[in-house]
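General statements about sequence and structure are easier to judge against a single worked case. When preparing material for the folding task, we compiled for one chain both its residues and its backbone structure tokens. The amino acid sequence and the backbone structure tokens for this protein are reproduced below:
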Amino acid sequence: MTHRFGDDWKKSLLLPAKDNRVKTSDVTATKGNEFEDYCLKRELLMGIFEMGWEKPSPIQEESIPIALSGRDILARAKNGTGKSGAYLIPLLERIDIKKDHIQAIVIVPTRELALQVSQISIQISKHLGGVKVMATTGGTNLRDDIMRLDEEVHVVIATPGRILDLIKKGIAKVNKVQMMVMDEADKLLSRDFVVIIEDIIGFLSKNRQILLYSATFPISVQKFMAKHLQKPYEINLMEELTLKERQKVHCLNTLFSRLQINQSIIFCNSTQRVELLAKKITQLGCSCFYIHAKMMQEYRNRVFHDFRNGLCRNLVSTDLFTRGIDIQAVNVVINFDFPKNAETYLHRIGRSGRFGHLGLAINLITAEDRFNLKTIEDQLMTDIKPIPGSIDKSLYVAEFHSVNPDCEAEASHPGGGSEAH
């Protein structure tokens, strides 16, 4: 198709219906850039606008110009913030359709994501006049892929095992690939995939560009970055806590100053919040470790061992830490995020006051948690009371323990509440 461009080229675009839903700040907190600012081919801009993308989201603003410059990127952003566009736009801009070889590969952990990303690539490249995009995933017919790769292919979107298989068979020739993207890199660098990813990189040329996108940065991502990325440009759009979370941090700070904490475990509902909260606690000047399921086992073991040996006073954790963990020195448990069910609540608060020692459990409650709070109170037939102005130290501090057996029995079932509105 030949396009004749004048100043009114946008008028001929087939735009989708405008999306008037309320958007979160992950998408709206931009610098005010336009897609035209990046000197992209007009045919690519047409595809972008016809996708309904009006302006670049924050992750796109940060990624696109850097990726176009050829520099490696390590980007941290949530799903649903325009992440695919952040790497597909520069990837497609740099494809030379006159060259008949694979120029870019995108590796994703699941078949569903591979199909979704290839669909977006096909849509935004439809005016580029012949960019050939191919998706290949495990569980599909290998013969179809072989026939497809016999023809012209510029971009391959694949799951790790399948692309490595095609490379090793000599079917997918990747020695001229200029860009490799890893989407959901934390999953791709988990124990299941990391060896495969290392193998794939071994077949690429030394001057390839690598773009890494991940919602979390476990130690596996950091190790990989140090080994394979050259002076990567780091983008982190997940630094900020919400207003409610900041109020909770303020609450935590007050608790730290008023409670006599021997050791505490602070529970969050997501791995991302664990890392962020641990950073904030450290900034408050309190010693803090963190642990969650996306960290490598050896690293988790080391954190656990050091915490048990008293090297640190506070540990921020997900529910990974709630079963069978006995650290007698823990006398305070804080639910930074209130748990979703009674079983989790019991497992969490059972981390303090082990083996007849006393302990305190404090919950930071927001308005959204009230339904869960009521449900858990009903199921456990208990009353989680608002936090008093001062807490009797005999309830949770060893040297203040009362010799009164009735008092001891009552205190060993900890429960507390703190309202953070």
Remarks:
- The longest strand covers residues 209-214.
- The domain at 9-236 is CATH 3.40.50.300 (Rossmann fold).
